[in-house]
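Target chain:
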Amino acid sequence: MAPPLRRRSESPRSPAAPGLPRHEQLHSPTSELENDGLWDGVLASTDDAPDPLDGPAQLSGMEIRESVLDGLRLSSARADGLRLTDVELRDCDLSGLVADGASLTRVRFVGCRLTGLILSDARLTDVAFEDCHADMINLRMSRLQRISLSGTRCRQADLLDAQVSDLSTDGADLGGAVFEKARLAAADLRGAALEDVRGASALRGAIISSEQVLGVGLALIGEAGIRVV
């Protein structure tokens, strides 16, 4: 069992940026996305993704490091144990991708479609989401450290029993998100939509703005079973 989180009231630390090679040092992939495959130092585009006519891609155990992925379409792929280290993803479609037990370290998502992405029991460290669509993203029982959500829609995100340290939000939409049994430390939720969240008591110690008081307060009242008549 992971040790309990201790940082509760401090301002969150920002995620570290991916350590990427210079553009001219990147090269096209010489192998396919596949089970237990490896991409290292690649610049991949739409043409490097598996043909969707062949069905959902199978890339469990795939490792990608020090790479830029631009426009890849991997909707509904199976990628258990996926490992991303120092990777930037731009305008990629990972909706419905299943990556239980994934490990993401210094990863930046920009303008990606992540609806229904499953990252349960995963470890995310230094991960930034910018202008993404990530409704119903599944982060159950995952451990997240130094995470930023900027202009990202995460309605009905599932963080059941997740451990989250150093979380910042700016223009994010977390309406209807599930925080039940989650443990948060150093979370700054200012600028996020928090209406109808479940498990609002898990937000204890988080920083919110005066504009968010009503939404969070109503969620706490509902959780406590208090009736307003």
Observations:
- The chain has a mean pLDDT of 91.
- The CA atoms of residues 163 and 183 lie 5 Å apart.
- Residues 213-223 form the longest helix (11 residues).
- The helical segments are 213-223.
